[in-house]
Design goal:
heterodimer, A: mainly alpha, 15 helices, globular, B: mainly alpha, 73% helix
Chain lengths: 341, 292
């Protein structure tokens, strides 16, 4: 036992930063972030609370994409479709059947799980660019399918569906926006914890093995077909729940909110936050929520050019996303500290 | 039957547009091994340059040649300036830079030339050839230009040292570098060529769909679809794929009841995915074989 401690002391594997190990820092930051997250809406105007809620919604969607792309190595340009399915499931259940909003979330999740799994089955045969095209087709087809005249009775056609914003339950003294913020925060935490558990489980290791070397994974006895389709399903579940929350928060669904552009936004958020990093999804959500607005403030006419320039800059500074950047910086700092000692 | 023939020829005419774009897509795929999302926007920008040159009073074919040269240089410069520094970054980061380029080019074109729709002249006569009632002269000219491009590319890639070097640089950069090929410049050259082909495609397409910053979006999709159906490794396949997509799109829109008109695009895409299910590397593509 003594020998072991000795190794831990001298090895570079457990570097310290200002007296704390890196995992301890992570826990500290996590707790601080949670406290800030809980306190923030009390000091902000309703509109800003609404924006922060959307950040969390996007974060859940990006996390879904991350499970597929970052953990399992499959590429998707079609996650706007699953977001749309989730949103429409909630909207139709609430509007046509009067189901309370919190019950529509699991329903949307299950519907998307099935949809994702079914889409994942044929996608098994496709890789890389071809998979990108197939998912891309899905994203492009979604708004058209939603506008279809024979489905208009359910989907409301081009007009979409308007949802009523829920009030805080049990007479809590919270505005609707604040209540939805806390509700979303709770869902976010649940989903993030589940993702962390999933990734570090046996299933998670199987998924990563398939990403890193599909042939070797198969040779080890991993059922690649099942895990790959399941990854699609779970990924769609996350994105679908995000879509469902998004519909409740925005109070409105319409076909043109779920275009290919949304799928691209998720992808941007994924890469900016860090592919394969679970907390990175939150940074991605912040990026796709606020940077387009920021770009518009810089220049109205050239807003998208500014956005593109920011995007290129971000990739140059952090080629592996925010998560990779943080890892790099903490690694350097730790080495610096330990060599000073 | 006559309706069928009409739709078939209309499909071939629109297919010509897609084939042109598919060729540019395959070109860039051959040299950088992935797909450039900003390809359509690059072509759109080139077309605006041509429009500007024409507005300044240059004759058509001189403006045509100038545009190709400018686009080629711009393609090389973009590769050197934007992509060389991130050569070792993950593929997804490249894709994000493509997306960034997409939004930059689209936004700047709209800023300089405004979002109003402009007409673009066709170099071909407005009277249909031999007074036939089925296909216009511009459509035929466009198909001819596509085929000429295809032949030129075929000669370049199959029968010149430069083409061989470019293929080698794309297929196996490390080995290519070891035998003395300047891989970085081959990639830049590929970008230049893709930009030049895109410029030709843009100038051929603009008379049909009219010039505006978003003109290429849909076309790029179909072009990509055509390239994938035909096989991303085969220029001939890409051109045939482009035509196939145009034909299927038109026929589905006319003959599939109820949903045909509303879901034209979807039907075309579903068919593509179906083709991929059966032949994952496209109809004419080589199946990738890798050593374990």
């Amino acid at each position: 036992m003594a020998v072991r401690e000795d190794i831990a002391e001298t090895a570079v594997a457990a570097p310290r930063l200002g007296g704390l190990t890196v995992p301890a820092w992570q826990r500290l930051i996590l707790v601080a972030a949670l406290i800030v997250g809980l306190a923030l809406p009390l000091f902000l105007k309703n509109f800003h609370v609404f924006q922060l809620t959307l950040v969390m919604v996007y974060a859940i969607a990006i996390l879904g994409l991350n499970l597929l792309t970052g953990i399992n190595g499959q590429f998707s340009l079609g996650h706007s479709a699953f977001y749309a399915i989730g949103a429409y499931t909630t909207a139709i259940l609430m509007d046509r059947f009067g189901v309370p909003y919190f019950l529509t979330l699991p329903a949307a999740g299950v519907v998307c799980l099935v949809a994702g799994f079914l889409f994942g089955l044929p996608a098994l045969r496709l890789e890389g660019l071809y998979l990108a095209l197939a998912t891309f087709a899905l994203a492009v087809a979604t708004p058209q399918l939603l506008k279809l005249s024979i489905l208009e009775h359910w989907t409301g056609g081009v007009q979409g569906i308007v949802i009523i914003k829920p009030d805080a339950p049990f007479g809590l003294p919270l505005s609707q926006d604040r209540w939805l913020y806390y509700f979303t925060l709770a869902v976010l935490l649940l989903m993030f914890v589940a993702a962390v558990r999933l990734v570090s489980s046996r299933t998670g290791r199987a998924l990563k093995a398939i990403r890193d070397n599909p042939l070797a994974a198969k040779a080890m006895g991993i059922d690649t077909a099942f895990y790959k389709s399941m990854a699609f399903g779970v990924s769609a579940l996350y994105t679908g729940v995000a879509g469902s929350l998004g519909a409740i928060v925005v109070q409105f669904v319409a076909p043109d909110s779920f275009t290919f552009f949304l799928a691209v936004s998720f992808l941007v958020g994924l890469v900016v936050g860090g592919v394969g990093s679970i907390p990175g999804a939150l940074i991605g959500g912040i990026f796709i929520m606020y940077i387009p607005n920021l770009a518009e403030q810089v220049s109205k006419g050239l807003a998208w050019a500014v956005y593109g320039a920011i995007l290129i800059l971000v990739i140059y500074v952090m080629p592996t996303g925010a998560a990779g950047f943080v890892r790099l910086v903490t690694g350097r700092l730790a080495r610096l500290m330990s060599s000073n000692r | 039957m006559e309706l069928f023939l009409h739709q078939l020829l209309a499909g071939i005419a629109t297919g010509g547009i897609y084939a042109c774009m598919a060729l540019a897509v395959v070109m860039i795929y051959q040299s950088i091994d992935h797909f450039n999302f900003a390809q359509g926007e690059m072509a759109m920008f080139s077309t605006y340059i041509a429009w500007q040159l024409l507005a300044w009073g240059f004759p058509y074919w001189i403006a045509f040649a100038f545009t190709i040269v400018i686009s080629f240089i711009a393609g090389v410069v973009i590769e050197r300036a934007l992509f060389k520094p991130i050569r070792n970054a993950p593929v997804l980061s490249h894709i994000i830079v493509f997306i960034a380029m997409f939004s930059i080019l689209n936004s700047i074109a709209g800023f300089i030339w405004e979002h109003t729709i402009k007409s673009f002249p066709s170099p071909f006569p407005s009277q249909p050839l031999f007074n036939n009632r089925l296909i216009g002269a511009h459509d035929l000219g466009m198909i001819a230009v596509t085929l000429i491009l295809l032949v030129l590319l075929y000669v370049l890639f199959r029968h010149t040292r430069l083409g061989l070097a470019m293929r080698a640089a794309a297929a196996n950069p490390d080995s290519a570098r070891l035998v003395g090929i300047r891989v970085g410049w081959m990639v830049a050259l590929g970008w230049g060529l893709a930009a030049a082909i895109g410029a030709v495609a843009g100038m051929m397409i603009a008379p049909v769909v009219f010039l505006e910053p978003n003109m290429m979006l849909g076309i790029l999709l179909y072009g990509l679809a055509g390239a994938v159906v035909g096989g991303l490794t085969s220029p001939v396949g890409a051109v045939l794929g482009g035509f196939a997509v145009g034909i299927v799109e038109n026929l589905a829109g006319t003959f599939v009841p109820v949903i045909g008109k509303e879901l034209k695009l979807t039907i075309a895409l579903v068919l593509i995915v179906a083709v991929l299910m059966v032949k994952p590397s496209g109809l004419f593509g080589r199946t990738a074989v890798s050593r374990v």
